Amino acid sequence: MQQVTVLGTGILGSQIIFQSAYMGKDVVAYDVSDEILAALPHRWQTLEAHYREDLPDATQERLDRAVAHIRATSDLADAVREAEVIIEAIPEQLSMKQEVWGKVGALAAPEAIFCTNSSTFLPSDIAPFTGRPDRFLALHFANTIWKNNTAEVMGHPGTDPQVFERVAAFAEEIGMVPIRLHKEQPGYVLNSLLVPLLNAAADLWVRGVASIEDIDATWRIATGAPLGPFQIYDIVGMMTPYYLSKDSTDPVRKKFAERLKHDYIDQGRMGRDSGRGFYDYR
């Protein structure tokens, strides 16, 4: 599958776009407005710096070639018209995803394969809205995908097995290690392990048990992990944990969302890619 469309140019969407182009795919980057798309050149510059730092084969020539493989558009019909695989990476709001996939299903070519990068919702939550559930499944990437290069492939009971294997092969083609899930699992493998850690860290912080720095230091020192949970939050960015927590019935989760909004999002502290999050990276 050479023709790739990515819906959503946020932190992870941008990474999927750039990594696919870096591995030689022709990629259309879609977002809802030209104003949002105008920020993409800066995103490519940021990603180029990370690639140069982390990958020995990231020559300037290859990075320039990757950017040349990317085309941006705010016209959804134009974005999906020639796509062989469409990967959705929009905010974690189920109704929004269902609505977008309903539109895509009416516009995309019949042979196109549909993938959601949703970190929390099951493919079966979305598949009926696509109009072609047999060609729909999840392809979930870990943040900083150029080096944390797993891609979890998770179908639903109605996913065509041949489509599943084509997506696993596509994941390999763009430099990922495909992780095949044999049944639907909220949070896949990665987030089933990671989210309890992040939630526990948020709980400790909101309840005033320990500081952000000490929570992170405890995890790093005691386990040998390279990053603490709040450093991981900064890589993920503030919007995903905010969306996942703001409507929670758990008072601690709700308080966490309120503090994210007031102390970080409203102050432009959106995470590592913005230069500031829980930590200052400037």
UniProtKB/TrEMBL annotation:
<feature type="site" description="Important for catalytic activity">
    <location>
        <position position="140"/>
    </location>
</feature>
<feature type="domain" description="3-hydroxyacyl-CoA dehydrogenase NAD binding">
    <location>
        <begin position="3"/>
        <end position="183"/>
    </location>
</feature>
<dbReference type="GO" id="GO:0003857">
    <property type="term" value="F:(3S)-3-hydroxyacyl-CoA dehydrogenase (NAD+) activity"/>
</dbReference>
<dbReference type="GO" id="GO:0006635">
    <property type="term" value="P:fatty acid beta-oxidation"/>
</dbReference>
<dbReference type="InterPro" id="IPR006108">
    <property type="entry name" value="3HC_DH_C"/>
</dbReference>
<dbReference type="InterPro" id="IPR013328">
    <property type="entry name" value="6PGD_dom2"/>
</dbReference>
<dbReference type="InterPro" id="IPR022694">
    <property type="entry name" value="3-OHacyl-CoA_DH"/>
</dbReference>
<keyword id="KW-0276">Fatty acid metabolism</keyword>
<feature type="domain" description="3-hydroxyacyl-CoA dehydrogenase C-terminal">
    <location>
        <begin position="187"/>
        <end position="281"/>
    </location>
</feature>
<dbReference type="InterPro" id="IPR036291">
    <property type="entry name" value="NAD(P)-bd_dom_sf"/>
</dbReference>
<comment type="pathway">
    <text>Lipid metabolism; butanoate metabolism.</text>
</comment>
<dbReference type="Pfam" id="PF00725">
    <property type="entry name" value="3HCDH"/>
</dbReference>
<dbReference type="InterPro" id="IPR008927">
    <property type="entry name" value="6-PGluconate_DH-like_C_sf"/>
</dbReference>
<dbReference type="GO" id="GO:0070403">
    <property type="term" value="F:NAD+ binding"/>
</dbReference>
<keyword id="KW-0443">Lipid metabolism</keyword>
<protein>
    <submittedName>
        <fullName>Putative 3-hydroxyacyl-CoA dehydrogenase</fullName>
        <ecNumber>1.1.1.35</ecNumber>
    </submittedName>
</protein>
<keyword id="KW-0560">Oxidoreductase</keyword>
<comment type="pathway">
    <text>Lipid metabolism; fatty acid beta-oxidation.</text>
</comment>
<dbReference type="Pfam" id="PF02737">
    <property type="entry name" value="3HCDH_N"/>
</dbReference>
<dbReference type="InterPro" id="IPR052242">
    <property type="entry name" value="Mito_3-hydroxyacyl-CoA_DH"/>
</dbReference>
<keyword id="KW-0520">NAD</keyword>
<dbReference type="InterPro" id="IPR006176">
    <property type="entry name" value="3-OHacyl-CoA_DH_NAD-bd"/>
</dbReference>
